[in-house]
Structures are given as C-alpha cells and as structure tokens.
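Input chain follows. Return structure tokens only.
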Amino acid sequence: MAAPRVLAIVLAGGEGKRLMPLTADRAKPAVPFGGIYRLIDFALSNIVNSGYLRVVVLTQYKSHSLDRHISTTWRMSTLLGNYVTPVPAQQRVGKNWFLGSADAIYQSLNLLDDERPDIVVIVGADNIYRMDFSQMVDQHVESGFPLTVAGIRQPISLADQFGVIEADADNPRKIGRFLEKPKDAVGLADSPDEVLASMGNYVIDADALVEAVTQDAKDESSAHDMGGSIVPRFVDDGSAGLYDFTFNDVPGSTDRDRSYWRDVGTVDAYFDANQDLISVYPVFNLYNDAWPLYTGYTGLPPAKFVYAHRERLGHAMDSLVSPGVIVSGGEIVDSVVSPGTRINSWSSVRDSVLFDGVDIGRNAVVSRAILDKNVHVEAGARVGVDEDQDRARGFTVTPGGITVVPKGWTVTR
C-alpha cells in the first residue's frame, strides 16, 4: 500500500493577547524563545523531522516578522516539490478575516485543491514540545476514523483551562466525550490525578476536512474553531479517534524530557518554559541531535566573555548564551540571552530572558525580567528589583512577579 500523501497546515494567526506586551509588535508564533528560536520553529521542526515536507502556515495578526522568518529560514528543495510557505488571510470567500481556526482552513481550501492530499496534519504554532507526527498518522490510518485528536496528560487541577478528552469506554483510541474547559472533569483510569487535554494537533482525512469546514462555514452560530466547533461534530458522530501523546517515541528523547509539552499562553508560562531549558539536566533538552530544532541564525560570531580580573569577571552560569553575545566584565546567572546582546562591566543579569540586541549598562541589575529586542538599560539602572517602580515606569509586572520591558525602550536610573 502506497504511503498517503500528506499536507501539513500550521495555524499561526493567533493574536496572543495574554502574551502582551511581547505580542504588541509581532504575532505570537514569532515571539523569540530559547535564545535563537522563534516559537513556530518547534512546530515546523516537528513536522519536517516527521517526514512531511509540504507545509503551509496560515498567518494573520501582525505577521510581518513571522512571514520574514519563515521565508528566510524555512527553505527546502523546490526540485523535489517541498516547501514551507506562509499564507496570509486573503478574504478569498468574503469580506471577513479569519473568524477562527476552522474558518482559516475554510478560507484556504484552495491549498488543498492545489496539493490534493489524502491526509492533512493540522498543528498549532506556539507550543514547546517534540513530537513525531508520523506515528500519529500511522494510528490514524490504522483506526479508520476520519479524524484523530492528540491528547496530552495534564493535572486535573488544570482541566478548566483546556478542552478535555474522555476516551470511549470500549475503545481507548476513540473519543467518547469532548468537554470544553470542564469544572468537574474525571481523572484517567490509570492516573486519577490527570486528564487528557487536547494539544490542538489533528490528523484528518482531506475529504472529511473539506466537508466539515464547509458545513461549519454555513452555521452562523458556530465559533468556527477546530477544537470548539469541528471536533465535537466528529465526536457526536462517533468518528473521532484519540492519540495519547504519552506513547509518542521521539528519537533521542530521555525519560526526563519524553512527553514534555508546554502551552506558553501567558508571560509567566513563557518565562517558566525558558527556565526549563537551563538546568544541568533540562526537562526540555535542546541538544537532542537525533531530533534537531531548526532555526535561522547564521553568520554570527561566537559568544565572547572578557575580563578575568577579581574586580570584574565576565561569566555566565546555568544559562543559555547565544552567538554574538559579548559579556564584558558582567555576570549572567540562570538566564537565557539572545544574539547580539551586550552585558557590560559590573552588571548582573539573573533569572531573566533577554531578546536580541539588548544592551545592559555598567553596574546595572536585571532580575526576574524579560527584556524585548533592543532594550537599553542605562548604567546603574535596575529592572525587576522593585515592582512598584517598574509599574510606575510603565512596565508590565505579571502575577508571577516577572517584569516585562517592551521592545526598544530605554530603562533609566
């Protein structure tokens, strides 16, 4: 039997309001992460590592930097007919922009007409994880269900934040019920303190997808969302399969990082996910060469650490330091530092995430903060030390106590 023809669709049009101010000037999937990556790099790396090399990325909200990143980074062999291409909202079927994820696909059905796939893999663009989608596709084909939904085990205390999947009593690979953010979720039989939450990843037969989103477009009461509108229709028909992410075996994974998945929907969650990268034995390992993470940074010089004097020692500990960074007599501790950043003498950066091009002046202190691109911290200034002062200066302070300085701002003393 010939392998099915697969098209991958990445849903990257989300506004990301809960990640403000990091999304004030960019789409959520374009937010930098882990020093050299963008959030979308994780979804795209998973897709191409799974062997699916025809990929469209549906974009909408403030998509310029996202489109540029995809166009300049994600290039594949046109000789073999492979591509990753951003597709902006085009109002092809009316005067509306995308009304939801299902409507985004409906307005882009011309892509399926062009590619003629047998199966469509649909994924979100802003979660941190590794996943071999080919294993999910294999189960999908074997099951005979027209739709398969990926589920991730999450604490039952978080059930009211997700779409929760309950397996069929007679078939653990079939969805019996799909509950949107339930207050009274029931734990799993083999783990009562956990539920299966929808990851927002789907495998669906192409003809079933076309029919489903076309019918959904006619329903004026619909939210036009894949999770909230399309999945329940298949569940009600008894035709929705379930894929448990727990059993996805990614090459090179370990017991510590297997089944890792983080929804970085809030600034605090985003900060915590960055912190997951920097321990000696990280819970998400960037250094898995068997399942590489691809991105676009090339041509940058190595990171440089200068001054080895007892009064000023340029150093970094328990941190990720990107190419192009200069640590000139300052210190970096428990932090993630992006390309082109400079840490000047006697300054201290701790428990923080610095985006590209940040400049930390002499004797400055940055603690528990996220500094967006091209932020300049003046000599002697402090960020993240006094929350009231940070708020008075117009910075966001999250419920978790993380100070966020917007793109291009200057932090004064």
